[in-house]
Amino acid sequence: MSIQSPNADESIERRQKLIDGQLRTGGVNDAEVLAAFLAVPREDYVAGTSLTLAYSDGPQRARAGGANLLPPLMLARLLQALEITPGESVLDVAGGGYSGALLRAMGAKVDEIGADLVFPTTAARGGYGAILVNGGFERDPTSLTDLLAPGGRLAGVRLSQGGGRAVLIERGAVAVSAESVIFECSAPLIAAFAKPAAFAF
Length: 201
Description:
This protein has one domain: Rossmann fold (3-Layer(aba) Sandwich). It is globular. 39% of the residues are buried. It is of the alpha/beta class.
């Protein structure tokens, strides 16, 4: 079912309902994050769904690249944890265009890559202030944390047999210095960060 060209007023109303009914009640109170969700029409990035479903609190497929879009509340909480500052260089991983648009609305300078982790030639290698991973990882995302500048942060979902946890990973002067749990959740695994299969006889 394709979206039937909603008028601007209806789209804005849906975004405001998302903010009031999901984000604020879910603990998102960062003004810049909320303003970005109001500014960016989510329906422009969701594949083959209705306007109503585009704003439901569940995972959806992106219109471009087939990425799995995170539920709005999960994405908003990750963005809030990253504490993006205007002008900051940010890498958006497997976001299907939507999270990249939100980050730009927050004033970030954004590079976007898919789940295949193919980097553009313009990527700020070693110079990212923040990295947003729109999915889960079973092993340490070292190939991404190595791209953080000192003091940089990475937010994503660490998966284990017991479930998943949204985490904030921080880089010190030369290496990862801290990891903290933001909230319990689950997210689709990004294949590049799957654990190697166990050897079986």
